[in-house]
Write a structure and sequence with these properties.
The complex is a heterodimer of chains A (about 950) and B (about 180). Chain A has about 950 residues and is α/β, with parallel strands linked by helices. Chain A has 41 helices and 16 strands. Chain A is elongated and about 125 Å long. The N and C termini of chain A lie far apart (about 95 Å). Chain B is mainly alpha-helical. Helix content of chain B is about 35%, strand content about 10%. Chain B has five helices and four strands, in the order H-H-H-H-E-H-E-E-E. In chain B, strand 2 and strand 3 form a beta hairpin. Classes of the chains: A alpha/beta (about 950), B mainly alpha (about 180). At the A-B interface, strand 15 and helix 13 of A face loops of B.
């Protein structure tokens, strides 16, 4: 038994199944040698002319390049460079129709030759002995050599095969009718081809090289034999003419008897196939240093005057080739790129020759008849007999028609080489290959989509998991206080214990409240361990008391200093999340003044941060005389001003205000400062300072006239308006409407000067956000009017309602629905709150904070309104509310991400402040002035500080 | 007596087989309803919610529980057919009478107009939109399933659904064969 090698050596050939014998038509173009073409007017060089990725552009429009100059730099992923086929100028780089049946535009370099055809410097070499494989492969890579038989597979990738290659098969078969490019190349350049073969052999270190040439090319066989006579490892084999013996798998079968497995590549059986044209290019690249810039193209067909093979520069348009060979088009002229069996009809002749173009066929209508009408399959099985891959074309056809893609794959559709033999033999003229091509594309796409769907699913599930995790985290955050709710009882117990232990007669309800608040906090902090809790609470209470005692000793000015301190502490805690509402309720009317002082102290202390205790004490001590108030106010103003970006403007505006108020309100000397601060901040924020400045003025005038008792309103209103306007995207609209509002409401409501402004703000925000500005704008108007009419005694309700409505509108996509909800709300609260003027403020603040944070504003607002009502019923005087509100609002503002909401909150703050001022003033005479300063300071400090407090605040508010 | 033997024999056999079955039931337990997995695999995973369920898997579960198979517009007729095959029901035309072959689309954010609100990011079921608050957002086209869900939440309507451009790779060969005729 002979070994395979021996059999091959002895010249044995094998047969592949199927195959056809179409008319060869080779004589048409192989009568004369390879011609040269004149330089075309321009060359179109697609960046991608092979299978794989295209390189990176190295040249720019307008650049002059030399022949052989590299135009793109290859990257990874099978990418190849392209080179300038001649010297000239890059006139453009743009998408141009590509050499593809679709002629889909592809990025191409357009090169206008300068006619000099001047080469760049080339590195030619005599031998390759001093080059290792890597260097050789690099040369192939950078010469841009791709398989020139038709597929355009990068040659360097093939040459770099990791698998051991036994046989190099050289494909000079050229089985397709008409094409003679390889034939002519072998005849004229056999020597170069053989040297190319030797280069590949040295890279791959193969046993034998088998050159397969169909026996209808005797001259080529002769030339190759002569050229290869020196190397007995190169075997030239004349193989019987049969289509498609030039197919890679068929040729391997014929020459080596090996069969490439389904879905495999020749390297799997130790064989590598290279086209003779490719090997010629390899030889040129290695020995001459010439990159792949031209190739032999057969121009043939009955409409060509001189059918011939030509050296065509890559990038020459098909039109150029046709015309230089004498092209006389007929009716319905078709021009085919490639052969008649596997080529494709070009949609246009303005398509460039690329590395894989081996033939331009321009037949007349007798030569290649237009495909006839498809008939029904008669099940003659001729296609199965012709199939070189032993597939069942008929079955495949049924499945392809029925789009049964799974079946198609089962029947090995992807082993089809699309040779067209089945279509050729089909008596019913069924374009079988077309069906397969479509089905293949379809299956490929489905697979791609499947991969994509899989990835989408993964991502979707990852996202779902993430959201769930986040939700859980959020729930856990909320759960903790809920879990400790039963611990309230424990807190009460510990509180009672404390009281019993301390037995301090002077301890007031305030202290109890403080302790309760503490205990609660402690519960929250230290989970559920009861004994620990009480111990901690006790300890803390003791410490507190000590501190208080110490303060008492120091501050002998009055008997209420203790309560003062208590209030101070309460406020400090108020900042620390929970106490806000509670502590406020517990404070009594007689301690109002002290509370204010304490608040100032606390604010300053906080501003300084860290050494809170000391500064607190000193603050309360000195506060008795209240001479430091002005200083504090100054500090507040300073901070605010430091913030304000446009200090100049800020300074200008407050002045008139302060003058007015100074005249009006001797009892409230600080108001102007506060107002100044607020205004400064607002202005700093406002982007359109000019507008902002214009509008507030009329407002303030009006209100100044109307409201003697509320000199700050105008300023606040101005601030609110400024912010709102700054935010509103459509400033123009926003400006027009608020004015109307304010005018109307100003006339209607002397007691409610803020309504119009707030309404305006709300409207502005709503408009800015709402997609349908028109709708949004229509709705706020009636709304604010209504509320203005309804609520003479309840000045804040309309504002609240407006704000709520604005938010609701901004958020809700269907504004109508959103509006319906807030209105009943405000009405309700308006009815309820006659005797409780502060409630609305509180509620507003709470709502503002909640809204700023909570995503579902509606819910939050609903919850808080009843809440505030409750607390309002409990307390009568509550003079600190405004301050707290200010603080809370400040925090919220600092946090609020969405500016619109921010603006809303500020309106509310200002509303509160407005309301708050007259009351303490009238009640508490001369000491009340500090309130405002304190509030301002607090607001400033808090804003600067608080980043995540709002979040917690929200939680507290809700609870 | 024979009757008792017979009863004992049958009883013993029953016991043995019962044990075998019981063991097999535990040993070869199928975790979840495999039909749901299969259905889910067929669905296009755009997670668009056009079926009325919050994602492809919920719809797969719904189909397994007897819902109609024709509620997946992104999947087109092909998906309906596959689902019908799996469920052993008659394939129906797509609910809503939409065109048979849905055009593949991807979202595109007109970046000049984006205000950085992150609403679309939150809406995207496959996290295919990148961006941060007040920063321009953009769509990772490769990951976009074309589900449309980001278009609605955009406050400035800067998201377009653009049909996926055909490339040489996705192009489907439709040219006619080039028959070679023997000349006499």
């Amino acid at each position: 038994m002979e070994t395979l090698l021996e059999q091959i050596e002895s010249g044995k050939l094998w047969q592949f199944p199927g195959g056809i014998h179409p008319p060869e038509q080779k004589f048409v173009s192989n009568q004369i040698g390879i011609g040269n073409l004149p330089l075309p007017e321009y060359l179109v060089l697609p960046l991608k002319q092979h299978i794989g990725a295209n390189g990176q552009l190295l040249v720019n429009k307008g650049e002059h390049v030399l022949k052989g100059q590299v135009l793109t730099r290859p990257g990874t992923n099978w990418s190849l460079p392209i080179h300038a086929p001649t010297s000239g100028t890059i006139t453009d780089i743009k998408p141009m129709p590509s050499a593809h049946p679709s002629a889909m535009p592809e990025l191409s370099i357009i090169l206008t030759p300068d006619g000099e055809d001047k080469w760049c410097s080339l590195t030619s070499r005599e031998s390759i002995e001093d080059l290792d494989n890597k260097a050789l492969i690099d040369i192939l890579h950078h010469a841009g050599i791709a398989g020139m038989g038709g597929a355009g597979f990068p040659t360097y990738v093939k040459a770099d095969s990791a698998k051991q290659i036994e046989y190099l098969v050289v494909n000079g078969v050229e089985c397709e009718p008409y094409i003679t490019a390889d034939d002519m190349l072998m005849r004229e350049h056999a020597k170069e081809i053989i040297s190319g073969i030797e280069v590949m052999m040295s890279i791959l270190s193969v046993q034998r090289t088998l050159v397969g040439i169909e026996d209808n090319k005797p001259q080529a066989i002769e030339a190759m034999r002569a050229a290869a006579s020196h190397n007995d490892k190169i075997l030239i084999r004349a193989i019987p003419t049969k289509y498609p013996s030039g197919g890679e798998k068929q040729l391997i079968k014929v020459l080596t008897s090996k069969e490439v497995p389904s879905g495999g590549i020749p390297a799997d059986v130790g064989v590598l196939v290279q086209n003779v044209g490719t090997l010629y290019a390899v030889s040129e690249a290695v020995y001459q240093g010439k990159p792949l810039i031209e190739r032999v193209v057969t121009v043939t067909g009955n409409t060509i005057h001189t059918p011939q093979n030509v050296w065509a520069l890559l990038g020459s348009e098909v039109k150029h080739l046709l015309h230089s060979q004498g092209f006389t088009p007929v009716d319905d002229q078709r021009v085919i790129m490639g052969g008649p069996m596997m080529g494709f009809t070009l949609p246009t002749v303005r398509i460039p020759v690329v590395k894989t173009t081996n033939c331009i066929l321009a037949p007349d209508n007798q030569e290649l008849a237009v495909a006839g009408q498809e008939q029904a399959c008669i099940r003659c099985s001729a296609c199965a007999d012709a199939c070189p891959q032993t597939l069942l074309p008929q079955q495949l056809q049924w499945f392809a028609k029925g789009k049964e893609y799974e079946k198609l794959e089962e029947y090995n559709l992807f082993d089809c080489i699309e040779c067209g033999a089945c279509s050729y033999v089909c008596p019913s003229e069924i374009p079988l290959v077309q069906y397969y091509r479509v089905a293949k594309a379809e299956i490929r796409e489905q697979k791609l989509e499947k991969v994509k769907a899989e990835r989408a699913k993964e991502r979707f599930e990852a996202r779902k998991a993430r959201l769930e995790r986040e939700q859980e985290e959020r729930q856990n955050r909320h759960k903790r206080p809920a879990r400790t709710a039963p611990a309230k009882d424990k807190a009460k117990v510990s509180e009672a214990l404390e009281r019993v232990k301390s037995k301090r007669p002077e301890q007031s309800a305030v202290q109890a409240a403080i302790e309760r608040a503490k205990a609660k906090k402690a519960d929250g902090d230290t989970s559920t361990l009861e004994p620990d809790n009480s111990a901690v609470a006790l300890e803390r209470a003791k410490r507190k008391e000590q501190a208080r005692k110490y303060k008492e000793e120091k501050a002998q000015s009055s008997d209420d200093s203790a309560s003062k301190d208590a209030v101070a502490a309460a406020i400090a805690r108020a900042k620390a999340k929970k106490a806000a509402a509670k502590a406020a309720q517990e404070t009594n009317a007689p301690e109002q003044k002290d509370a204010k002082k304490a608040a100032v102290a606390a604010a300053i202390a906080r501003a300084k941060a860290k050494k809170a205790g000391q500064s607190e004490a000193s603050g309360s001590e000195t506060a008795a005389t209240s001479d430091n108030d002005p200083r504090k106010a100054a500090v507040a103003a300073a901070i605010a001003r430091a913030k304000a970006k446009k200090a100049a403007k800020a300074d200008e505006e407050p002045q008139p205000h302060s003058d007015e108020s100074a005249e009006q309100a001797v009892a409230e000397p600080e108001d102007p400062r506060k107002a100044a601060v607020a205004a400064a901040i607002a202005r700093a924020k406002a982007k359109k300072a000019a507008k902002a400045a214009e509008e507030p003025q009329p407002h303030s005038d009006v209100s100044a006239e109307q409201a003697d008792a509320e000199p700050e309103d105008p300023r606040k209103a101005a601030v609110a308006a400024a912010i709102a306007r700054a935010k509103a995207k459509k400033a123009a609209k926003a400006d027009e409407e608020p004015q109307q509002h304010s005018d109307e409401s100003a006339e209607q409501a002397a007691a409610e000067p803020e309504d119009p402004r707030k309404a305006a703000v709300a409207a502005a925000i709503a408009r800015a956000k709402a997609k349908k500005a028109a709708k949004a704008a229509e709705e706020p108007q009636p709304h604010s009017d209504e509320s203005a009419e309804q609520a003479a005694a309840e000045p804040e309700d309309p504002r609240k309602a407006a704000v709520a409505a604005a938010i609701a509108r901004a958020k809700a996509k269907k504004a109508a629905k959103a509006d319906e909800e807030p209105q009943p709300h405000s009405d309700e609260s308006a009815e309820q709150a006659d005797a409780e003027p502060e409630d609305p403020r509180k509620a507003a603040v709470a709502a503002a904070i909640a809204r700023a944070k909570a995503k579902k504003a509606a819910k939050a607002a609903e919850e808080q309104q009843p809440h505030s009502d409750e607390s309002a019923e409990q307390t009568d005087a509550e003079p600190e509310d405004p301050r707290k509100a200010a603080v809370a609002a400040a925090i919220a503002r600092a946090k609020a991400k969405k500016a619109a909401k921010e603006a809303e909150q500020q309106t509310e703050v200002s509303g509160n402040a407005e309301e708050a001022c007259p009351q303490p003033d009238s009640e508490t005479a001369q000491l009340s002035p500090e309130d405002k300063r304190k509030a301002a300071i607090k607001a400033a400090v808090e804003r600067a500080k608080a980043k995540k407090q709002a979040q917690e605040q929200e939680g507290n508010d809700l609870s | 007596m024979t009757l008792i033997y017979a009863l004992i024999a049958i009883g013993a056999l029953a016991l043995v087989f019962g044990l075998i079955l019981g063991y097999a039931a535990i040993k070869y337990r199928v975790e979840s309803n495999p039909i749901v997995e299969q259905l889910d695999a067929v669905l296009p995973q755009t997670q668009c919610g056009q079926c009325g369920y919050p994602g492809c898997r919920p719809y797969a579960e719904a189909i397994a529980n007897g819902d109609e198979v024709n509620k997946c517009p992104p999947g087109g007729e092909a998906t309906v057919k596959k689902l019908a095959d799996l469920m052993g029901v008659e394939a129906k035309p797509l609910a809503g009478g939409e065109e048979a072959e849905p055009v593949k689309k991807v979202a595109y954010i007109r970046e000049d107009e984006c205000i950085g609100c992150t609403k679309c990011i939150q809406a995207c079921p496959v996290d295919a939109i990148v961006g941060a608050t007040r920063q321009m957002h953009t769509v990772i086209a490769d990951e976009c399933t074309g589900c449309d869900l980001c278009v609605e939440p955009c406050p400035v309507d800067c998201i377009d659904m653009i049909p996926v451009a055909e490339t040489k790779q996705s192009w489907k060969w439709q040219i006619n064969a080039i028959p070679v005729k023997q000349l006499d």
